[in-house]
Design goal:
This protein has 15 helices and 20 strands. With 511 residues, the chain is α/β, with parallel strands linked by helices. The strands form 4 sheets. A 9-stranded mixed beta sheet has the order 2-1-3-4-11-10-9-6-7, with helices on both faces. Strands 14-13-12-15-16 form a 5-stranded parallel beta sheet, with helices on both faces. Strands 17, 18, 19 and 20 form a 4-stranded mixed beta sheet that branches. The longest helix has 23 residues, at 292-314. It starts with a strand and ends in a 13-residue tail after the last strand. The relative contact order is 0.08. The chain binds xanthosine-5'-monophosphate. Xanthosine-5'-monophosphate is lined by residues 296, 340-341, 343-345, 388, 390-392, 432, 466, 503, 507-509.
Length: 511
């Protein structure tokens, strides 16, 4: 990879967004925490430019993140954003102040001067501000190139050393000309060419693994989710039948999902696929268990056991594939936040299977880039744009004890709800939507007879990151149609409710 931009992370909430915005302009960007890379390493890698991210601190705080001022003389163009701008000013000898007249927050009119960073940006435009501190006096050799009503130095630069700082956030869409500014930094100031393309990534990866994994026996746990599907097709292109995919069907999938995954990968792509029908095994283990965390634990462990059994049959495995993506790489090592739900994934596999190495073909990609790669590889839309589905599957959507009968009822209700959303063309309006089988039975009336059946809850949420989510305002007509079809077509359900709780306080899944 020739051209790279470094996003030097000082703890800002938008660090991933900055990297994505850069990649959208076909320049590869990678994020590194400020305390994990030295000036010499940066110089050695040969980055075309550096972006200092924002951060929650004040440069004069003792604990605030700082960096060696040598970086300013490394001959690499730098763009400091928000805290990154203040830090640059501080490092170069400028003066930072806390706003006397209050923080500046939200959409703000900004006035820019003629400058390479503001090529094709009008004198007045809207930017997104979120700060309390500001650069009171820019360092020597820096000049002010933008201001707002409240902030006399909304942008500054030392054109000779190619050092630029903006107090506002060009990476958020509320900054009207943010895209142009980033583009100017990349192409006018850093001299990038913009050659990072998904086609090239796919081709280069296929070539790389063709050589690297030649004659090796490679194993992958295929779930039918986006990441494992893309990894599977990519590696299949590289090494064909030397890749074995094991798809553990735990019987907790949605209606027809197991068959769809099998058909797609075996028939369409010709993958060497082993489908393990382990429904009975999982249901036996789950019998009588009502506690959500207990269910997750059992499913996680059983998944590993089933996979292990299959792997043993295959003999010696050289390489195990993991569907790690870039946010996992960035997040790993971070985070001491409380465990709300112990998410099940295949992270436990390396401990139980003997193999020589791990391959992570997607570790440089963001989720939307994984989708783009999937599309380039010809994976069907239903899979590439599949909404997230929890590893423990419907087990966490059947409240209380799980039985085959309850799972079947839920599968039918869920399929109807998804069908109605799809018919109304609303698949993209909600980020995730599904049905939940509650453990409340209620009285109903059908014809002249009394019924006593389950209550189904419908849930749809809208979110970017699933950390917080809004309940989706689905049209009444869609809800009505779903409710009427579910009560009519699914035996055992007498009532349908719609979940109108956002996250927080509720989580997306009910368990
Ligand atoms: P919650 O319920 O925690 O869900 O608000 C956030 C997102 O994570 C998914 N989810 C899971 N995914 N294993 C997974 O792989 C799990 O155990 C699990 N629990 C929740 C959920 O569907 C939503 O997209």
């Amino acid at each position: 990879m020739s051209e790279k931009i470094l996003v030097l992370d000082f703890g800002g909430q938008y660090n991933q967004l900055i990297a994505r915005r850069v990649r959208e302009q076909h320049v590869y960007a990678e994020i590194k925490p400020y305390n994990k890379i030295s000036v010499d390493e940066i110089k050695g890698i040969g980055y075309k430019g550096i972006i200092f991210t924002g951060g929650p601190n004040s440069v004069y705080d003792e604990l605030s993140p700082h960096y060696s001022a040598d970086i300013l003389n490394a001959g690499i163009p730098i763009l400091g954003i928000c805290y990154g701008c203040q830090l640059m000013a501080y490092m170069a000898g400028g003066e930072i102040r806390s706003a006397e007249n209050g923080s500046e927050y939200g959409k703000t009119a900004v006035f820019t001067k003629e400058n390479p960073l503001f090529k094709n940006v009008p004198y007045e435009s809207v930017c997104w501000m979120s700060h309390t501190d500001y650069v009171k006096t820019p360092p020597e050799n820096f000049k002010i190139i933008a201001n707002t009503a409240k902030c006399p130095c909304a942008a500054m630069c030392d054109e000779k050393r190619k050092l630029y700082g903006v107090q506002f956030h060009p990476e958020v869409t509320h900054t009207e000309y943010g895209k142009e500014m980033l583009s100017n930094f990349l192409f006018e100031i850093c001299g990038c060419k913009g050659e990072w393309k998904m086609d090239d990534f796919v081709e280069q990866s296929v070539e790389k693994y063709r050589v690297k994994l030649k004659d090796k026996k490679v194993l992958l746990a295929l779930s039918g989710g986006v990441d494992s599907s893309v990894a599977a097709v990519l590696l299949h292109k590289a090494i064909g039948k030397n890749l074995t995919c094991v798809f553990v069907d735990h019987g907790l999938l949605r209606k027809d999902e197991g068959d769809f995954v099998e058909q797609t990968f075996r028939e369409k792509f010709g993958l060497n696929l082993i489908r393990v029908n382990a429904e009975e095994r999982f249901l036996n283990k789950l019998s009588g268990v009502a506690d959500p965390e207990e269910k997750r634990k059992i499913i996680g462990e059983e998944f590993i056991r089933v996979f292990e059994d299959e792997a043993k049959k295959l003999g010696k495995i050289n390489v195990l594939v993991q569907g790690t993506i870039y946010p996992d790489v960035i997040e790993s090592g971070k985070g001491d936040s409380a465990v709300i739900k112990s998410h099940h994934n295949v992270g436990g596999l390396p401990d139980v299977i003997s193999f020589d190495e791990i391959a992570e073909p997607l570790r440089d990609l963001f989720k939307d880039e994984v989708r783009e790669a999937g599309t380039k590889l010809g994976i069907p839309c239903e899979l590439v744009w599949r909404q997230p589905f929890p590893g423990p599957g419907l087990a966490v959507r059947v409240i209380g004890e799980i039985t085959k009968e309850k799972l079947d009822i839920l599968r039918e209700a869920d399929a109807i709800f998804r069908d109605e959303i799809s018919k109304a063309g609303l698949e993209k309006s909600a980020s995730q939507y599904f049905a939940v089988l509650t453990d409340s039975k209620t009285v109903g009336v059908m014809g002249d007879a009394r019924t006593y059946g389950y209550t189904v809850a419908l849930r749809a949420v809208t979110t970017d990151d699933f950390m917080t989510a809004e309940w989706t305002r689905l049209p009444y007509e869609v809800l009505e149609k779903s409710s009427s079809r579910i009560t009519n077509e699914v035996k055992g359900i007498s009532r349908v409710v719609y979940d109108i709780t956002s996250k927080p306080p509720a989580t997306v899944e009910w368990e």
